[in-house]
């Protein structure tokens, strides 16, 4: 991950972890369609122990699949156990040493009679209120951590976290420091507010602890359900890492994106924006659907950005009054005939006037001409014209065969386990 490797695609299974056989099936299913790192939740020690059996059965039935264990609340023992069985342990700094939100306000109130009048109001405070909320700001100042308190909490984090660092070192495992906007610790919320800065500081604190204990096999995620926050947090993370000489891979995702078309657009907006800036080394598109649906979206994002190529790139005009054929139907026919030819760019353009110029650098062009005819292009060169429309697809396939660009489609694409990945220029 990172260091010039292709952007890695990952997802997370939804089966209950103690249901080992169901987990094994879902992990294999995800890997078959191209998921390169599969996350499994380990909410307690029992699930972390179950990872041993899951790992063994996946390997026995199918082969090696990289696995991540997802650790959240009070995670020391869970993460130490999981590190024996998986390739990566994910910890959430907001929950790893968990203090219930409101406990800080209760503590302050109980130790100071002058603030007792706030006793009923403070525990209800949600520091995730907007930064412009004066009441939230006032209470944050009221509850600000002193240097000693801050160091005590940090020491408690370190004491809980070091065994995990040592376990990852011992077993040669990676770790994701996975910060979520919705689960920042109370200390971070009181100090930085509900902000990208709070997310970044939350991650940096754990990264510094890892480095202090000689461990750097790390990557970071800063996820939010709101795209602008997720984008801002990741940009700020890169800036802050640059300032202190860190360069850890970033895992991108818009969390709780929902389902359907809007979830895909939302995920793409966040992930693609950052990838185009050169930020991001691995991605997960989180959908409230079967996770198997996440993988094609990841690949489409990467293909659209020119980062990985997993299928034919079709360039097709939207059609207009000049179009010489029913473009949606012809595009469908061309796609059905050629969609297994990973690596090619094929253009379907409605007219000879603008089509050849606008199909850019496609490898092959299928262009409508006057009189119900088709003209075929190889790059910008006309290869054959005057082809009757009904023979257009057939002639395109013949051209591909003549050029050695054709291969027969697999008999059953559903049995294909290895996606073809081509580097892109
Ligand atoms: Fe219209 Fe021709 Fe442009 Fe297609 S390529 S949108 S048919 S002008």
In DSSP terms (H or I, runs of 4 or more residues), the helix count works out at 14
Apparent shape: elongated
Strand % is: 15-25%
Chain-averaged pLDDT: 89
**Helix coverage percent:** 40-55%
Compressed to H and E, one letter per element, the order equals EHEHEHEHHHEHHEHEHEHEHEHEEEH
Q: What is the C-alpha radius of gyration, as a whole number of Å?
A: 26 Å
Please mark out the parts with pLDDT under 50 across 5 or more consecutive residues, or reply none.
109-125, 414-418
How can the largest sheet be summarized? 8 strands, parallel, barrel
> How would you write the strand order of the largest sheet?
1-2-3-4-5-6-7-8
Q: Give the assembly state of these chains.
A: single chain
Q: How many strands?
A: 13
User: Bound compounds, please?
Assistant: iron/sulfur cluster
C-alpha termini separation:
19 Å
- Give the structural class: alpha/beta
What is this structure's SSE topology?
Layout: E1 8-12, H1 20-32, E2 37-41, H2 45-61, E3 67-71, H3 76-82, E4 88-91, H4 103-110, H5 134-142, H6 147-171, E5 174-180, H7 186-192, H8 196-212, E6 218-223, H9 227-244, E7 250-252, H10 260-276, E8 282-283, H11 294-304, E9 313-316, H12 327-338, E10 345-349, H13 355-358, E11 364-369, E12 373-378, E13 381-388, H14 392-402
Helix pairs in contact: 1-2, 2-3, 3-6, 7-8, 8-9, 9-10, 10-11
């Amino acid at each position: 991950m990172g260091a010039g490797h292709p952007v890695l695609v990952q997802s997370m299974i939804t089966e209950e972890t103690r249901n080992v056989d169901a987990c094994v099936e879902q992990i294999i299913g995800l890997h078959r369609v191209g998921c390169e790192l599969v996350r499994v939740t380990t909410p307690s020690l029992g699930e972390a122990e179950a990872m041993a059996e899951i790992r063994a059965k996946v390997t026995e039935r199918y082969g090696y699949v990289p696995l991540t264990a997802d650790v959240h609340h009070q995670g020391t023992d869970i993460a130490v156990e999981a590190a024996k069985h998986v390739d990566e342990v994910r910890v959430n700094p907001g929950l790893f040493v968990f203090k219930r939100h409101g406990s800080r306000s209760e503590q302050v109130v109980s130790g100071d009679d002058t603030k007792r009048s706030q006793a009923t109001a403070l525990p209800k405070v949600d520091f995730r209120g907007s930064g412009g909320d004066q009441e939230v700001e006032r209470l944050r100042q009221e509850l600000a951590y002193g240097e000693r308190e801050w160091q005590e909490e940090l020491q408690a984090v370190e004491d809980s976290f070091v065994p995990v660092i040592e376990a990852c070192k011992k077993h040669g495992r990676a770790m994701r420091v996975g910060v979520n906007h919705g689960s920042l610790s109370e200390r971070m919320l009181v100090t930085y507010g509900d902000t990208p800065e709070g997310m970044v500081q939350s991650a940096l604190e754990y990264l510094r602890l890892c480095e202090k204990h000689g461990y750097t096999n790390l990557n970071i995620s800063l996820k939010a359900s709101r795209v602008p926050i997720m984008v801002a947090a990741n940009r700020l993370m890169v800036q802050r890492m640059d300032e202190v000489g860190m360069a850890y891979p970033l895992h991108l995702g818009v969390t709780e994106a929902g389902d359907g078309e809007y979830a895909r657009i939302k995920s793409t907006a966040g992930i693609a924006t950052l990838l185009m800036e050169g930020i991001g080394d691995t991605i997960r598109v989180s959908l409230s659907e079967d996770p198997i649906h996440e993988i094609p979206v990841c690949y489409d994002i990467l293909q659209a950005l020119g980062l990985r190529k997993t299928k034919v790139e079709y360039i097709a005009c939207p059609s207009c009054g000049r179009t010489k054929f029913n473009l949606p139907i012809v595009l469908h026919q061309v796609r059905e005939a050629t969609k297994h030819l990973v690596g090619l760019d094929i253009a379907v353009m409605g007219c000879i006037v603008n089509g050849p110029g606008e199909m850019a650098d496609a490898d092959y062009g299928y262009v409508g001409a006057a009189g119900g005819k088709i003209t075929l292009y190889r790059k910008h060169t006309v290869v054959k014209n005057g082809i009757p429309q009904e023979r257009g697809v057939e002639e395109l396939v013949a051209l591909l065969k003549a050029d050695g660009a054709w291969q027969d489609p697999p008999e059953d694409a559903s049995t294909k386990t290895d996606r073809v990945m081509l580097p892109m220029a």
